[in-house]
């Protein structure tokens, strides 16, 4: 229930209730959870098994709708194509509490640093061509560059579904790079949705995604929420120890001559309400840095009845599409440890 309340009362108000699915709280049995656990584990790479573990002792779960589909309407033969994107953190931190030895954080994105670590650990075979700063830039050209980067190296950050079935990206794991063979199969799969000649459908689809992201403006909201973290973890951790009324472990490790010791000390002199706000904003922002975004498209026929969904036009194919953008929550709570 804690996750549900967090999404319902915090994330819905920040990102818009129509764009967030908090799920439905339902009771479950231990046998059901064990079955889910077994089904999920076989689809995970070994290094992500721990992240996928299901707690069989829970007596309830949150049921999330399948947002890769539109609700069935009068048109039974509709085709629906959906893309799931994990945008990651869209800005470089400027916090005054970042230590000089960690100054790289001011010029290199978290995503790029994590990519280097994963490559070193053998979890990926190549660095992603995607740059989150491009996706959040608001520039049409840079957003399109970001989408092309995600398509080139999907990993677990970019997946495409046709009528609910995965046609690009990894299911529960990584799809490092889109090979020529995979790209050709994907191009052929698009022919029921994108009305373009062979060899151009993929490009048109990526154009459609880019245009929708720019016109919807939802990533602007996500970026605003991410930027609630203006202290960075290096500042928030001090506020956290204020909140739990315990000696600050970080300060105990600092020498009196440390350049930031005085600045950190100032954090320990603020009111408890201010400390609570720093910690709260950090945790909310951390959730926004780790969310998924699902964009679903359905071709709109000429003369079709009025739709409750937003519309986007793809000039290169002379097509119009209904679309919906949702953030399927909940993700796990972010924690300070």
Automatic annotation (TrEMBL):
Coiled coil: none annotated. GO terms for molecular function: ATP binding; inositol-1,3,4,5,6-pentakisphosphate 2-kinase activity. Its EC number is 2.7.1.158. It catalyses: 1D-myo-inositol 1,3,4,5,6-pentakisphosphate + ATP = 1D-myo-inositol hexakisphosphate + ADP + H(+). It holds the Pfam family Ins_P5_2-kin. Gene3D superfamilies: Inositol-pentakisphosphate 2-kinase, N-lobe. InterPro entries: Ins_P5_2-kin, IP5_2-K_N_lobe. Keywords: ATP-binding, Kinase, Nucleotide-binding, Transferase. The EXKPK motif is conserved in inositol-pentakisphosphate 2-kinases of both family 1 and 2. Phosphorylates Ins(1,3,4,5,6)P5 at position 2 to form Ins(1,2,3,4,5,6)P6 (InsP6 or phytate). This is Inositol-pentakisphosphate 2-kinase.
């Amino acid at each position: 229930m804690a996750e549900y309340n967090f999404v319902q009362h915090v994330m819905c108000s920040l990102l818009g209730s129509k764009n967030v699915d908090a799920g439905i709280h339902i009771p479950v049995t231990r046998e059901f959870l064990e079955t889910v656990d077994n089904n999920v584990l076989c689809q995970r790479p070994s290094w992500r098994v721990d992240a996928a573990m299901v707690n069989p002792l829970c007596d309830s779960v949150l049921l999330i709708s399948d947002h890769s589909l539109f609700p069935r309407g009068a048109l039974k033969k509709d085709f629906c194509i959906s893309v799931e994107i994990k945008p990651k953190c869209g800005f470089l931190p400027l916090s005054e509490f970042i230590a000089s030895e960690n100054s790289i954080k001011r010029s290199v994105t978290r995503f790029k640093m994590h990519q280097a670590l994963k490559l070193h650990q053998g979890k990926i075979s190549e660095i992603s061509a995607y740059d989150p700063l491009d996706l959040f830039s608001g520039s049409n050209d840079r957003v399109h560059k970001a989408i092309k980067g995600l398509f080139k190296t999907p990993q677990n950050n970019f997946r495409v579904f046709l009528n609910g079935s995965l046609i690009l990206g990894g299911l529960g794991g990584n799809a490092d790079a889109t090979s020529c063979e995979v790209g050709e199969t994907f191009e052929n799969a698009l022919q029921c949705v994108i009305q373009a000649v062979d060899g151009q459908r993929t490009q048109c689809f990526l154009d459609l995604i880019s245009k929708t992201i720019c016109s919807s403006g939802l990533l602007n909201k996500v970026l605003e929420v991410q930027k609630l973290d203006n202290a960075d973890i290096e500042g928030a951790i001090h506020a956290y120890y204020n909140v739990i009324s315990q000696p600050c472990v970080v300060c105990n490790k600092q020498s009196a001559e440390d350049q930031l010791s005085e600045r950190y000390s100032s954090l320990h002199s603020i009111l408890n309400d201010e400390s609570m706000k720093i910690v709260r904003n950090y945790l909310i922002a951390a959730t926004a840095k780790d969310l998924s975004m699902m964009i679903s498209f359905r071709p709109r026929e000429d003369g079709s009845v009025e739709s409750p969904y937003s519309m986007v036009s793809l000039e290169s194919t002379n097509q119009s599409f209904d679309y919906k953008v949702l953030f399927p929550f909940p993700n796990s709570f972010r924690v300070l440890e």
